[in-house]
Write a structure and sequence with these properties.
mainly alpha, 3 domains
């Protein structure tokens, strides 16, 4: 009798069969946020408003409405959970409203940039973050993340659309309908084209009430606005961005003192020269530069503005990179830094005086007004830097946000001052050194200046008055704008021109 031995690996009398390997745990992936149904509706509404702006004018109701709609949609989406971020979104609404009352492009574009900056900041700080603890690196990181949200905006909307799609039974019922439409569509197009060519009355039924190219432009505008709004909501949906830690610094206090001491010595000599001119008069200027005092006063203002801007960059860089030292070194750094700020403010004041003298001699222009406004802002920033230097050098958290806020505030105040109206009044009320008025330049100003120009036409010679009146009457400020393109400055210009222009 032959005995058969079973394999002990498989014979249950000897051992248990080997257990299967445990299943590999699924790889964890963070859930990527997607647009909700409400957010999909909001981005479409904002896209329609942005398309209306693109097909009318930025400086109009549509431009102001686009900013307001984006701010409201950002808050209504529920993604903004920080009070500071909600406040920035709310602040963007009155800033954007300036677009409906100003017309000059060099005023409108900075206002639009300021409103966009407030919306982007509201989205970036929507999930948290301290405004007062931002340095340059933190702001760069936030700006880069906003750009990344713009790149991911399409996927954000697609994920939301897929989630909002019908359930599986609904999709199964929709698939046959879609297949039938794909088959019937080409056949119906061919047959319809043949019937339209055979009967003009039937062809009139198939004529579209709009231009196909125009429809494509509107669809592109809506898509652009929807993607921009989706980028803001996507950024607000991100987790909070940790603020960068304080940089230990790479420049010693001694090196910083050498650099700032050189600035103080150089600017001290410049201040001494201004004192010498003030007390020595024209003889000092004639001996030094062979110029009259008027010629001396009217030159060099652009160079002085450039010096102020470069010094501002140097002070900000030194303060950001200096290493904390001893208490005595910190006091020395503060003293020398304050001296550099004070002497640079002297340069800013000299630049403003020379700008004023230049304007009195040759008249005020948009470029000169912009330079004056920029110079005043640089002086305000130096005041902020001086206040920041009073603290120890390693405390530098609020300065950069304050500079950005001052730039936004300066943009709004400049637009609120109606600069082109100021330019028109200045050139018509304050005669230049030559006693002439540039009527051609006045005619080239935007609608913002028209009411003030019309009100002061009697100050011109008969020939200049006629030339300027003809140029102004050739304007048709409200033609072709439509309701979305209505602008307050254009309406005021139209009302001012009505009495002097033939119908």
């Amino acid at each position: 009798m032959t005995e058969v031995f079973a394999d002990p690996r498989w014979d249950s009398r000897w051992t248990e069969p080997p257990a299967p390997p445990p299943p590999r745990p699924p790889r964890w992936r963070p859930a990527r946020p997607r647009a909700t149904g409400r957010e999909l509706l909001l981005v479409v509404v904002v896209g329609v408003v942005v398309d209306s702006m693109l097909h009318s004018r930025l400086a109009g109701l549509a431009g102001a409405g686009a900013v307001g709609a984006a701010a409201v949609a950002l808050v209504v989406s529920g993604r903004v959970r920080s009070h500071a971020a909600a406040a920035m979104a709310a602040l963007a609404v009155p800033v954007g409203a300036i677009l409906a009352v100003r017309s000059a492009w060099w005023v409108v574009l900075p206002v639009a940039a300021a409103a966009s900056t407030l919306l982007a900041a509201s989205a970036s700080f929507g999930s948290g973050g301290r405004l007062a603890s931002q340095d340059a690196w933190s702001l760069i990181r936030r700006a880069g993340r906003v750009l990344g949200s713009g790149i991911d905006a399409t996927a954000f909307l697609v994920r939301g659309g897929v989630a909002a799609a019908p359930s599986a039974p609904g999709r199964r019922r929709a698939v046959p309908v879609l297949r039938g439409a794909l088959v019937a569509g080409p056949i119906l197009l061919v047959l319809g084209a043949l019937l339209a060519s055979a009967d003009p009355v039937f062809a009139s039924y198939l004529r579209l009430p709009f231009d196909v190219d125009e429809l494509g432009g509107h669809l592109a505008g809506i898509a652009l606005g929807a993607l921009a709004m989706a980028a803001l909501i996507r950024e607000a949906a991100r987790p909070p961005l940790e603020d960068a830690a304080a940089h230990p610094g790479r420049v010693g206090v001694t090196e910083a003192l050498v650099l700032l001491g050189g600035l103080v010595a150089l600017y001290g000599l410049f201040a001494l020269a201004q004192v010498q001119v003030a007390f020595g008069g024209a003889d000092v200027v004639r001996r030094a530069g062979h110029l009259t005092r008027a010629e001396y006063a009217r030159q060099g203002f652009f160079q002085l503005v450039a010096v102020s801007a470069i010094t501002l960059g140097v002070l900000l860089a030194v303060r950001a990179l200096v290493r904390p030292g001893t208490r005595r070194q910190a006091l020395a750094f503060t003293a020398v830094g304050e001296a550099a700020v004070a002497l640079t403010l002297v340069i800013v004041a000299v630049a403003l005086v020379r700008l004023r003298l230049y304007d009195d001699a040759y008249g005020l222009t948009a470029l000169r007004f912009a330079v004056i406004a920029t110079t005043v802002w640089i002086g305000a920033v130096f005041v902020l830097v001086g206040a920041a230097l009073l603290r120890p050098v390693w405390h530098r958290n609020w300065l950069l946000p304050a500079i950005v806020a001052s730039a936004l505030l300066g943009t709004v105040l400049t637009a609120a001052a109606d600069p082109e109206a100021v330019i028109a009044r200045h050139n018509l009320e304050v005669p230049t050194a030559e006693g002439t008025i540039d009527a051609a330049y006045l005619a080239s100003l935007s609608d913002d200046a028209v009411p003030d120009v019309v009100a002061r036409l009697d100050r011109l010679s008969p020939w200049s008055r006629q030339v300027l009146t003809d140029a102004l009457c050739r304007r048709r400020t409200l033609e072709g704008r439509g309701p979305a393109g209505w602008n307050g400055a254009a309406a005021e210009a139209e009302a001012a021109l009505a009495p002097i222009c033939p119908t």
